[in-house]
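Lab notebook: predicted structure, single chain.

Context: the supervisor wants predicted structures on file for every construct in the current expression panel, including those that have not yet been purified. This is the next one on the list. No modifications to the sequence; it matches the entry in the shared construct table.
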Amino acid sequence: MTEQQLPAWADPSVSPSDLDAQGVSRRQLMRRAGLFGAAFALGGAATPALAATSHGFGGHDPRLAYLVGDHHVHSVYSHDAKYTFSQQAQAAARYGLDWMVFNEHSNFGHAHYGAALEHKEILKARADNPRQLIFQGLEWYIPAAEHCTVFAAPGPNEVDLLTQFELAYDGKLLGYDKGGAADTDTARNEAHAVKAIKWLAEQRRSGYVDDVLVLANHPLRLGIDSPHEMRNWRDAAPEIMIGMEGAPGAQGAAIPGWRGSTSIRGEYENKPSPQSWAGYPADAYLTYGGFDWATATVGGLWDSMLAEGRLFSITTNSDNHRTVFDTWKNGDWPAGQNFDNTGKLPDPVNTDTPQPGSDFWPGEFSRTHVGVTRYGYRAVMAGLRAGRVWLDHGHLLDGLDVRVKRDCDAGRGVTLGGRLRVRKGEKVTLHVTVTTASRPNPQGILPELAHVDVIQGTVRGRVADRDTWKAPDTKVVQTKDVSGRKGTYTLRIPLTVGHESFYLRLRGSDGNRHGAGYLGASIDPNGPIPHEPGNGDPWADTWFYSNPVFVDVAGA
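Prediction complete. Output recorded below exactly as produced.
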């Protein structure tokens, strides 16, 4: 196999003249973090050196470089997709991805045939694309609920782990799909999902695989991921079940004049069904600025989980099956073959005519940025687990660095996913360093950030009602107008430390489309809003979101 190489922007042997504008920008960010060169040497299978937050007062997290990725990509090994590994990897490279996960849909054809065939192509793809980190994963049909990305670190047992998991725990394969209030098997099915996550945790603890992670996909698309289920998955093994898609793929679904007059970004076009959790309002089935209602609602479901004082990360991705305006179609089946008896679709054929689709290529529109100190597969997974994550649509930003620190400390403070320990009354400052877009995005637009919102919520501890989806003490506490600002700049925002612990998260947009948030203008005066059906140009409504930083007040 070809030796793994650093991404071009991180490789000192690559001349700056060979990089595009964003590559140059990323290298500058890396230099600023003091990680360019030997300090960012390939991490390989070694555990990356991500320093833990101090157990004393304050905190001191390392400087980070951010790797850009997508954990939800499909190929000919999914029954409803169409692209080869080579097509997806080349597209990901074209749009600047450093890491990606092929997570094919679970079914018997995949489990019995496709997974092993896919693994051979994964190995080839890693060799053919040495500057990319390419994971093998599975799109798990959660018993009684929606889908999840499950992926493992490369190693001798990665495909065996995924296949064992698929056959033993997949809701679709087992017929454990029902989860409605009136279904007699709901309790059994929900319990099987928890058992599945615990099983994955045991495989990691035993050393059968070096690492494995789970993320819930498009959680509110069908309204069947109830709040108590999401909490149960997290609590089963929080080091394994680390979060959810804050924004789904299929962001091209509602490009005007393309897919239909009723289309919604993310293909969030559903109504409540007998399988849906009855506590969700009808508006929960829509996207807001392309983001899932659970994430986009300030004081909503995501905040209600964070208000327990526990990390639950968000991501975004392409969910690429069929790219908008692409001209390839599925190939024809040879006589006697189908997905059930092969586990693989025929390779696609170019028609020179645009084909139906809702998706963007990996990295073309949706990007998840993961903070690491070294380069490698386990570094990405460790960064995801630590919550050092921010996301953007439309290449809105080149860089984001967030630190919360006590004014009396000389260190760098605590970053995304971290915890800062303070005393009541101490002076604390939030430092937000933004690097604006350095080049036009794939649509030819030079993105411009209009505002940065600071969202703060009180930490209340474990909830008594595990179906709670509101955090009444969370709201937008400051909005910074950054219109017209270019390059790299830092916002310094003083914070008041009272007697209660709290968390902070960030959000911002191009300023093109906003209004009162779902829970009212007093909570969120200028939040993302739904678009009209069929009129959701994603390039004209782009946002970034960050994971939280927790501030733990002594004695709270």
